[in-house]
What does this fold into?
Amino acid sequence: MSSATATAAGKTTRFGKARHWITPFRLHCVVLAVYVIVVATVMCFHEPWFDEAQAWLIARDCSWREMILERPHYEGHPPLWWMILAVPAKLGVPYEIGLKSVNLIFATLMVWLLEFKTKLPELFKTILPFSYFLCYQYGVTSRPYALMICAMLLVAINWKTRNKKPWHEVFSLMLLCLTSSYGIVIAGMFAANWVLGFLKSDHSPIHNKRRFFALLVLLAFAVILILDVIPAKDVFHGNFDMHGIYEPVPIWQQFLNAWILLPSETLFTSIQTSSSLNFVTLSWDQVIEAGLFSGLMWAFLIQISRRRNHMALLLTTYLAISIAFMQHFSTHHNGIVLGFFMAILAIDCETEPISADDWPKRCLALADWFIGKLGEKTSLRYFNLMKALGMALMLVSVYWTVSASICDIRYDYAPSRAMANYAKTYHLDKYRWMSGWTRLVKTADTTPSVAELIDKGGYCAGGNDCIDYTSWLPRTQTEMAPYFKHNLAANAYKGHSFASWDWIEHPYESKKDLAAWKSWGEPEVYDTIYQPFYFSVLGYDRNDYTKVHVADTVTPWKDQRTTDSYDIYVRNDIYENVMHSPNTGIAWPDGSKRK
It folds into this structure.
């Protein structure tokens, strides 16, 4: 045997051993381990933003009664996430450690269920955990959506045995209800399809008494949760742009966007920015781009589900989801769509694995025609090229994860940590802070919805064509609050550390608030953007303050970036005599006594 032949044989043997070692189970273990390492690493650099801080503050500062019975009417979701966070928050666990540890547990559980408990194709199990929503949005950032996808996967895992073991499925649906109001909608449609299915076969709702009782319990549970999350009369729904720049698009357009845009945005396109579905308008080239990818996704999902008699479950549930999204939808909710599609595919694959038999007969006939025309070798070459293209498209979302993670590591995602560290470094938390407020202004370019709101009336210290809302403060105060045991802003609405969503219904409250704030005199620290009225209305002299730059942020959304900067105004006596005093108690690296 020649040396070249021996070398080739050795390589083949080593490759064969490696391929034999990489069993599906070991591959799943590797995927899970890498996922946890990636998410935990990026988490260490990630600065929690408003939504993360809001949930922690509700968990930490609300009583159990308020958390369970009051806040859901303003937040729009069941209280489970806050109740879970309340354990570390009320025990005094540091903010970032407590918040991120909880989310890491659920993100890990989400991928464990995907890898070890579903029968999805191995390619999906390898790539999906590192897709943008599962890895970055629901792994690195800490919100209840990883838990929600866990619940959807549990529903899918138990779906096949739902009639034999109804309580397993019902408990999974109850968990889904608890994670989100969207979860209530999805669980309701799964339950409705379940009921219709056994009514057709059994012709009686009580043929299986365990199932009947379990579904009654689920119905009662869902009704209680719905009553708990019904919006309060004075809650702000986010249905208009506070800046008066964008007008909500028509309802029919939002509905079409839910079907044409959202599916493609889960994995393939980056058309949306971090905004609400209410304001999304698409150009024709974006409609074509999104429509192409969404169309392919729908064709795949419908074909797979139709062959397994699950098409009604897919389409009726998504119809309900799309209607719910028209009430309120932010782009980070797109991962819910991905989670739902994963659950449907998991149900399909549990019934029958995806195979060549799932190709439509016309596609198979067309493939045979091409093979006859081009020959087997050429056809195989084109087939491999198509597979490579499909793999590249699947990896687009992984690229977004890499891009967003690198950005999060290099730059501040939010100003929360930098602002808190700055305040602690100079002991500014010992002084009185004030915060700016929200002013809606009517101009020639103001959108009709904002103009109509202003025309209804309200108090404004600046005239008649505006309204001052003193109950809506800048988000930086909410983002900073978890790092401190007390509110920094003396003018926090009702003393809340978290943001309240009832501000829109109090257009005349600001007259009393502004008068009270003015009587307090100039604060040591003022957290606001510079607009002359923020100083003049309260009787502050701008010359009494030094503007201090605290943070620059670069917030990633897929492959897009949003930049911002944050400043505070420090009263001159504090700036000169405390922050720059020789007696600050701060040891400067160069040994100097003054910064």
